[in-house]
Specification:
fatty acid metabolism; lipid biosynthesis; membrane; transmembrane
């Protein structure tokens, strides 16, 4: 039991503390980890951030990042996750104040479930260093140049048709160039999508003029997909249909449900621009066929790049682990090269992307040696593969999973 007053069986703070079960201001009760861990159910959720105990039962439903993200840490220490997903923790803390119900007892460790305290402390020290050295700050010039090369690809594709006509070979080449620009625009918006977890980024509106769909909505919906059964549907559903069908439906559905009319208008501006450019060459139905084929190609690019870092790893339900170990067990890196960086939108640094989701991509290569050294110090596997090995592992894992599914009773 905590030492801050008489506790009820439900571990609610004593009434003399002036704190009710729904959360309260300035909670002065103290709790043990055993008490906190009891509140991990859908209708009763507490979590700990920097040793402060918060009752998030009602707030979880209004959490901008979604109820599943915050509920995952119910009954646990969420300090590292809180720091990782909130670019401005001081701004977010004002939302936490009404939820504060107390703190951990002085005799309690800062970390739950017997986590490796030295590893957790070293990772937090690394994050402090990353912040001090400005590695979480973006360089606008990098992204301006990146957007420029996307626009150049689109201009070249349109120029091909304008000068040499719409033969099958030129149309195919145009489709490949458009798919490339779409994939690169997708990586660019994916980067800024992470920065808009807590605050909307104006770059998202700019990018929607140049990217098919809205990745910050589509990617969030992936949490509903049964990744542990991918071997049963991956090749038929994943690469060919993810963006053309699944993302498209879910993106529009989410925008309507949230009544995000501004985002919807910006997304529709892409299609308006596309048809204005290609209707003179292909007509209405030809333009629809072209954009469908481009999205088909883009979907393959997106799925293969993201899955080569994840599918061969542990992708079943997460076990309770510290932030560093949890991310390292679920992903791996693809070795660095100019082509790999460009081809994957710097998602070849998937480990660093997971550990520091708000870090701009151009700084991944700077923090990667520091993460690797930390992993070596604590014996945490840090996997780096070639691009060919990553792609091969996806196929191998799918075949192995399919065979296992066929022979299982």
């Amino acid at each position: 039991m905590g030492g801050g007053g008489q506790q009820t069986e439900s571990s609610e703070p004593a009434k003399c503390d002036g704190v009710g079960p729904g959360g309260g201001r300035g909670g002065s009760a103290v709790y043990t980890w055993e008490e906190v861990q009891k509140h991990c159910h859908r209708g009763d959720q507490w979590l700990v951030i920097d040793r402060k105990v918060y009752n998030i039962t009602q707030w979880a439903k209004r959490h901008p990042g979604g109820i599943r993200v915050i509920s995952h840490f119910a009954g646990e220490d969420a300090t590292d996750a809180f720091s990782a997903f909130h670019p401005d923790p001081n701004f977010v803390r004002k939302f936490l104040k009404p939820l504060l119900i107390g703190e951990l007892a002085p005799t309690e460790p800062s970390h739950d479930h017997g986590k490796n305290a030295a590893l957790v402390q070293d990772f937090q020290a690394l994050r402090d260093r990353v912040e001090r050295e400005g590695l979480l700050r973006a360089r606008p010039l990098f992204f301006c140049l990146y957007l420029g090369h996307i626009l150049l690809l689109e201009a070249l594709a349109l120029g091909l048709l304008w000068v040499w006509g719409t033969s099958w070979s030129l149309t195919l080449l145009c489709s490949l160039m458009l798919a490339t620009s779409q994939s690169q625009a997708g990586w660019l918006q994916h980067d800024y999508g992470h920065l808009s977890v807590c605050k909307k980024s104006s770059w998202n509106h700019i990018l929607q003029k140049f990217v098919i769909g809205h990745l910050k909505y589509g990617i969030k919906k992936l949490k509903y997909m049964p990744y542990q059964h991918q071997h049963q549907y991956f090749f038929l559903i994943g690469p060919p249909l993810l963006i053309p069908v699944y993302f498209h439906i879910q993106i529009l559905r989410t925008m309507f449900l949230r009544q995000d009319w501004v985002d919807l208008a910006w997304s529709m501006s892409f299609y308006l621009r596309f048809f204005c450019c290609y209707y003179p060459f292909f007509g209405f139905f030809g333009s629809v066929a072209l954009i469908s084929f481009v999205r088909f190609l883009e979907s393959h690019w997106f799925v293969w790049v993201t899955q080569m870092n994840h599918l061969p790893m542990e992708i079943d339900h997460e076990r309770h682990q510290d932030w560093l170990t949890m991310q390292l067990s679920a992903t791996c890196n693809i070795e660095q090269s100019t082509f790999n960086d460009w081809f994957s939108g710097h998602l070849n640094f998937q480990i660093e992307h997971h550990l520091f989701p708000t870090m701009p991509r151009h700084n991944y290569h700077l923090v990667a040696p520091l993460v690797r050294a930390l992993c070596e110090k604590h014996g945490v596997p840090y996997q780096v593969k070639t691009l060919q090995k990553g792609m091969t592992d996806v196929v191998t894992e799918e075949v192995r999973g399919s065979v296992a599914g066929c022979v299982s009773p």
